[in-house]
Amino acid sequence: MICKQNVTTTNYEYRFDNPILQVETTTRIEFSVVAKNDVHIALSSSPEVMISMYEIVIGGWGNTKSVIRRCKQCPNEKEHEETGILSVDEFTKFWISFENGSIRVGLVGSDPFMEWDDPDPLPVKYVGFSTWPGIEGTFQFCQ
Fold it and tell me: Is the pTM of this model over 0.90?
């Protein structure tokens, strides 16, 4: 298994520089993360922020809510309220699946805690990651 660890800046800038996350032949990723709150994942057709892309926020709003959006900072399509899903002390393992507009998010080993079916699916070929301004995150992606 090949793993790559990345630390985000505190600027809310998506990184698409992890070659493990070029997902043209897969429909699911798994990752581990250590962060206080506000983990952001972008599912995009290009290795950059697009007007039309999926944005998944895990542990936003002070680690109390997760959401799925259809673009960066768009209105929430789906929300899940849960306090403390992220940890600043240890890695939390998540999975995200994306196929034909069906977006699912869960903890590794568990059923999805959040899901949404987009009636007008977007293509997904790249995965980006970020944290909110002022928040640092350590991500680990394995293949």
Answer: yes
